[in-house]
């Protein structure tokens, strides 16, 4: 199990989220949900798709989302 910070662009299933669960829930990032990493670089935010929404999340938040 790795965080999305460690993954390449592609689609993944969320296994676990750590930290502010309410914020993740509001964004639709919950265990069992599908997310797609659209783009990321070595610095700056990571662009993901959750459902029909595109969301830019910071690297700190990305460390808390574990996928497979």
UniProtKB/TrEMBL annotation:
The protein's name in its UniProt record: FeoA family protein
Keyword Cytoplasm among UniProt keywords: no
GO MF term set: transition metal ion binding
Species for this entry: Methanococcus vannielii (strain ATCC 35089 / DSM 1224 / JCM 13029 / OCM 148 / SB)
Domain Ferrous iron transporter FeoA-like as annotated: residue spans: 2-68
Keyword Iron among record annotations: yes
Keywords assigned: Iron
Pfam family, one: FeoA
């Amino acid at each position: 199990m790795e965080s999305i910070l460690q993954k390449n662009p592609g689609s993944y299933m969320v296994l676990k989220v750590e930290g502010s669960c309410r914020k993740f829930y509001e964004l639709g990032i919950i265990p069992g949900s599908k997310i797609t990493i659209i783009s990321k670089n070595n610095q700056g935010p990571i662009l993901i798709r959750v459902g029909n929404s595109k969301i830019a999340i910071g690297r700190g938040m990305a460390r808390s989302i574990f996928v497979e």
